[in-house]
Structure formats: structure tokens, C-alpha cells
Amino acid sequence: MKIYLIGYMGSGKSTLGKVLAREKEMDFIDFDDYLEGKEGKRIAEIFEEKGEIYFRKQEAHYLQELLEGFDNTIISLGGGTPCYGNAMERIKAAEGTSVYINVPVDELTRRLWSQRDHRPVLKHQNTPEKLEEFVRKHLFERSYYYNQAAIKIMVKGQSVPQLVNELGEKLF
Ligand code: S3P
């Protein structure tokens, strides 16, 4: 069994993935950590030193490694991973199940406001209003890819244990 968690930055992919993996005795991989380990650099540094196009190219490359190996694993993908090139097609064709963690824009904005300095895609949004406007448009564009996931979870105030339960019921 393999599970790919997809969704916008701040949607809780890693938090939920870790808890579910522990509960189901599966391994867990955070794709951002995996990519940082392979490149020997933080994502923010990769963006700064080599630019976003290089990052997206490496992201597409390492995605393939994750799609081909790692059985019995829950993989939390980067927010942009399914949205470039043919990544979503490759995810759908691979062994395993994709899950979209769908969080409303206002909640994403609240979560992301304090974290935007570490997130190269968001760091220029310097007021909560600008950030919300950006997230709204960006999520709208990306939803085309996210909505192709096999399973969708709508987040509307459930606690982490409730969401993990819901995920477990839909997946197992
Ligand atoms: C990105 C999301 C990040 C990380 C990078 C780009 C994006 O991952 O891959 O900063 O374009 O949405 P998380 O969604 O795990 O924060």
C-alpha cells in the first residue's frame, strides 16, 4: 500500500501523514525533506541560488524515485508537486492512492501568514490581505490538478485525530 497526500502549502499533509503512518504501521516520507536531503540544501536556498525552474525540474525527478519505490509508505508531496509537467498523470498511473487535503482559503491564509518567510513561493505577500488574494488565485489554478486525486478530504474544523480517522475510513 502507498498513499500520496497532496494539497496546498499549510493544508496539513505532513502532520496528518505522520499520524496516520504511525497508526497504520507504515513508513512516512515528507517529499520536501527527501528533496532537501538529496540536494543537500534547504528548499529556500535552492530557490534563491538556482531559481524555481531548477527546483521544479529536481522535484519532477525525485518524484519519480518516490513513485517507483517505497512500498507501505505514506508520502506527503510538496504543494506544487502535482501541478507541473505531467506529474499528476504520473501520480495517478503509479501504484498507490492519492488523497487531496482540501482546506478553505481563509484557513490556509491564517496558517500560512506566520510561516511565509520560510516559503519562497509566498514570501513577497507582505500583508494578510495580499496573502489571501494570492492563495485564492493560486489555489484556484492548482485545484485542477488536486481535484484529480482519487480521494478527497474536506477540512472544516475537524481536529487532527478526527481527520486521521476520516482518512483511515476512506483508505482502508
Ligand atoms: C511549494 C510547496 C512546498 C515546497 C516548496 C514549493 C509550492 O511544500 O515544496 O516551497 O509550490 O506549493 P509544502 O506544501 O510541503 O509546504
Explain this structure.
The protein has 172 residues and is α/β, with parallel strands linked by helices. It has one domain (2-157): P-loop containing nucleotide triphosphate hydrolases (Rossmann fold, 3-Layer(aba) Sandwich). It has eight helices and five strands; from the N terminus they run E-H-E-H-H-H-E-H-E-H-H-E-H. It has helices at 13-23, 31-39, 43-50, 52-68, 87-93, 105-113, 128-146, 160-171, and strands at 2-6, 27-30, 73-76, 97-102, 151-154. It has a five-stranded parallel beta sheet with strand order 2-3-1-4-5. The longest helix is centred in the last third of the chain and has 19 residues, at 128-146. It starts with a strand and ends with a helix. The model has no long low-confidence stretch (mean pLDDT 97). The structure holds shikimate-3-phosphate. Shikimate-3-phosphate is lined by residues 9, 32, 43, 78-80, 119-121.
Sheet with the most strands: spatial strand order: 2-3-1-4-5
Bound molecules: shikimate-3-phosphate
Total count of domains: 1
Low-confidence stretches: none
Major sheet, described briefly?
Answer: 5 strands, parallel
* Strand-pairing-aware structural class: alpha/beta
Helix content: 40-55%
Q: What proportion strand? A: 5-15%
Please provide the ordered H/E string of secondary-structure elements. EHEHHHEHEHHEH
CATH class: Alpha Beta
Judging by the overall fold, what is the CATH architecture?
A: 3-Layer(aba) Sandwich
Integer average pLDDT: 97
**Structure summary, number of beta strands:** 5
